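debug: dumping io for the single-chain case to check the tokenizer round-trip. Nothing else runs in this session.
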Amino acid sequence: MTSEHSELLELKNLGMASVNILRAIGINNQQDLDSMGAVEAYCRIKKRGIHVSKVMLYALQGALMNVHWNDLSPELKEQLVKEADEQTVIN
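debug: decoded output
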């Protein structure tokens, strides 16, 4: 396991399966995820044909905020889904 791999695994909400998915879209460390953001990462995952639920979107945002995804406010979850839907329409 590389140090980048373990760095992502240290983030809340991310397990090995999530880390492997992130690596498939070019996210190799926390800085990559910070730069891309949760919505863009989620949309790229979906665009690659990888089936993930909205929980992945919440998990990514939670990882960025260092909180469990289930502790995100309903308003934030709604905003994330709206942004992801808008981005999907644009692309």
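debug: round-trip ok. The chain has a mean pLDDT of 93.
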